[in-house]
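Need a sequence for this fold. Nothing fancy.
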């Protein structure tokens, strides 16, 4: 494997140069992996129709089980080549797409998507990212891209090219640098393949927004043989190395504080504030990067987190924090 090219753009959020996109296209067509930016987090991309390329994703991430991967497409027309499009998908696409939203749909019987990508199941997760370069990469390659978050399995999702470099720099040939991810938290996953739609993972697009579009209440995710249908619902996930305490009202001397709004907690030596103005979107954008920073501080023995309001994207933030705190 050629040495990993770290490609720095001159300014944050600069569009990626066409020559680099072309390099990425060549690698993807050759069955290689390319990390690329999306509006949520960086993805570790591969040709979703190529079993071997998809297998490389699992090997590189060290993903213990073959959890299904999201397939990224550039349009509804492209989605319809692989999935059975239904009225719910149509309504959600009209209302939101391109968007930080993944729809689980029945897989078309003759769908070219790799079985491994769908973990052998009969559904496929489809997402049209709201990121120009991500869509341009798909358009130029003509490939649906399987892309989980570009981190080692169970670790914090990367929101910058630097994060990807630290996670996977040695094992992938190319990281496209599009600056910091705008949203910073993974897409909402909604299952629209069953009798009643249900959210499998909370994200930027909220349950109430979806219910308003679909004009019906969503179902609760069901347990199948003791497991949730989506491995994204695993209790322990997004784990930093340091232990996490949530909803804190005080902070130990050797803990780093992840604050939100006015830091009421006294005594924190190291503090990062998710949003001084209590803005939940800003907090989501900072969440993973700040967790990484605190986790990397050798002076700390733990991370304490102030309460985050359980509303809007705060639900997704709390969901990720709960999983990060569970070990
Ligand atoms: O924002 C995102 O969604 C990012 C960016 C890169 O697009 N991707 C991402 O992928 O977070 P990943 O693999 O880390 O999470 C995908 C989630 C997993 O929880 C997986 O179990 C679920 O989606 N998923 C994918 N396909 C599924 C399917 N067919 N049925 C049920 N769950 C599925
Ligand atoms: Mg992930």
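Here you go.
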């Amino acid at each position: 494997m050629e040495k990993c090219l770290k490609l720095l753009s001159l300014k944050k959020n600069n569009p990626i140069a066409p020559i680099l996109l072309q390099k990425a296209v060549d690698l993807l067509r050759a069955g290689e992996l390319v990390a690329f930016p999306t509006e949520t987090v960086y993805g570790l991309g591969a040709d979703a129709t190529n079993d071997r390329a998809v297998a490389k994703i699992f090997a590189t991430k060290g993903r213990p089980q073959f959890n299904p991967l999201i397939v990224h497409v550039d349009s509804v027309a492209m989605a319809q080549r692989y999935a059975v499009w239904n009225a719910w998908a149509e309504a959600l696409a009209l209302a939101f797409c391109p968007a930080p939203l993944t729809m689980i749909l029945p897989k078309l019987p003759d769908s070219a998507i790799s079985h491994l990508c769908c973990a052998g199941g009969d559904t496929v997760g489809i997402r049209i990212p709201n990121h120009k370069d991500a869509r341009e990469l798909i358009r130029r390659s003509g490939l649906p891209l399987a892309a989980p978050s570009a981190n080692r399995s169970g670790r914090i999702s990367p929101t910058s090219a630097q994060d990807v470099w630290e996670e996977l720099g040695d094992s992938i040939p190319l990281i496209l640098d599009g600056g910091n991810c705008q949203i910073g938290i993974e897409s909402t996953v909604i299952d629209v393949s069953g009798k009643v739609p249900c959210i499998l993972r909370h994200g930027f697009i909220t349950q109430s927004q979806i219910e308003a579009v679909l004009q019906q209440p969503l179902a609760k995710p069901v347990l199948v043989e003791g497991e949730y249908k989506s491995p994204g619902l695993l209790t322990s996930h997004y784990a930093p190395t340091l232990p996490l305490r949530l909803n804190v009202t005080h902070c130990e001397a050797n803990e780093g504080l992840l604050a939100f709004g006015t830091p009421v907690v006294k005594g924190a030596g190291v503090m990062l504030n998710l949003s001084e103005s209590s803005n939940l979107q800003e907090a989501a954008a900072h969440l993973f990067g700040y967790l990484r920073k605190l986790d990397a501080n050798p002076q700390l023995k733990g991370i304490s987190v102030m309460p985050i309001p359980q509303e809007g994207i705060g639900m997704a933030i709390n969901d990720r924090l709960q999983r990060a705190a569970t070990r």
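For context: The first strand starts at residue 5 and ends at 6.
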